Amino acid sequence: RSLEWLAASNAPVRIGASHLSRHPLAAKSLEGLVPHEIWRLAGEMLTRNLLSEERIFDMYGKGDQVVEIRECLDSGQPFEEHWEARSLAEAFLQLLISLPVPVITPSVRAAAIGVHNNPQACCDAAGRLPEPHLTTLIYLLAMLREMLAHSSRNKHTPETLAAIFSAVLMGAPPAPVSASLSDDDADADTGGAGPRDETGLGIVFSLPTDHSKAQ
């Protein structure tokens, strides 16, 4: 499903827009702006104070938990308390990379890469994103800024988050598990967790955290 479709329906994909008014997870304040799946995952991590946990976005989650999380996103079922922070983070990244058109569209990506040494020019390029893409980008950057407010605890830096999220937001595949892992580090396919390579395009947009520009 496209980002525009998800933002417009603002309900689990198996429920659809026709049942929006009856669904308890519908948030009218974000209807048509940010996909329900994105703010639901972000909200879960914020509510459980998981953004302060150590390096959740550069470690793979447990494969079985990630599958369960995505099933709950599609069906609207409640999240389980026992799911690990890294599994929620992995599902979050998988959701973003699964979009047929990434949050940062190819045309804006090309424009931003051409001016990547000029923050204002990057902001100007991002301002040409379609409305749901721009609002979603601002929403995600606000979440990442919240993560950086807890960097002393979660050990994430602007560089590591830029490396991970720039690739995902621009449509690159998730980074593979490092070949240097020990045998004790299981990958997501076997239900374990292992480190994620810090790769990506490394471009950061210095956008405001409020939604006034996109509303």
Low-confidence runs: 14-29, 176-215
Averaging pLDDT over every residue, what do you get?
A: 74
Structural class: mainly alpha
Binned, the helix content reads: 40-55%
Strand content: under 5%
Q: Judging from the principal axes of the Cα atoms, what is the shape?
A: globular
Oligomer classification: single chain
Rg from Cα: 17 Å
* Major sheet size, sense and barrel closure: none
The number of helical runs is 9
Q: Ends: how far apart?
A: 23 Å
The H-and-E topology, N to C, reads as HHHHHHHHH
Total strand count, please?
A: 0
Q: Could you explain how this protein is built, in words?
A:
The chain has 215 residues and is mainly alpha-helical. Helices cover 45% and strands 0% of the residues. The chain has helices at 3-9, 36-47, 63-75, 85-97, 106-114, 119-126, 131-148, 151-154, 158-169. Helix 2 packs antiparallel against helix 4 (85-97), helix 3 packs across helix 4 and helix 5 (106-114) packs antiparallel against helix 6 (119-126). The longest helix is centred in the middle third of the chain and has 18 residues, at 131-148.
In short:
The chain has 215 residues and is an all-alpha fold. The protein is built from nine helices and no strands.
Search tags:
215 residues, mainly alpha, 45% helix, globular
Furnish the topology, listing elements before pairings.
Elements: H1 3-9, H2 36-47, H3 63-75, H4 85-97, H5 106-114, H6 119-126, H7 131-148, H8 151-154, H9 158-169
